[in-house]
Design goal:
The protein is α+β, with helices and mostly antiparallel strands. The chain is built from 3 helices and 2 strands; from the N terminus they run αββαα. Strands 1-2 form a two-stranded antiparallel ribbon.
Length: 92
């Protein structure tokens, strides 16, 4: 996990350096709406949207994994209570 975060910071640094080295104003148009903004804002927004879209498919898997862990922990706790409640067997 730590390596992924380091890699993400490095990639964000590269994107930021690219955006800073390419100054300028662009006009964004969406249907009848338009806005003038810098290239930096466009690049950072596109990168952020890409990261968000990249993480979305992993969210259901994360929820399933957490639910499975809870199920296994409760089963383990029940098994431990069962084994501690049973009397020890005498060996002859």
């Amino acid at each position: 996990m730590r390596m992924v975060l380091v890699l993400l910071v490095v990639v964000m640094g590269i994107v930021a350096a690219f955006a800073i080295q390419n100054p300028g104003i662009v006009t964004l148009q969406f249907f009848h709406l338009s806005a003038n903004t810098s290239v930096l804002v466009v690049i950072i927004a596109a990168f952020g949207a890409g990261v968000l879209v990249g993480f979305l498919p992993g969210i259901p898997t994360s929820f399933r994994r957490k639910r499975r862990i809870r199920e296994l922990e409760s089963a383990l706790a029940a098994q431990q209570q069962k084994s501690s409640a049973s009397p020890p067997t005498a060996s002859s």
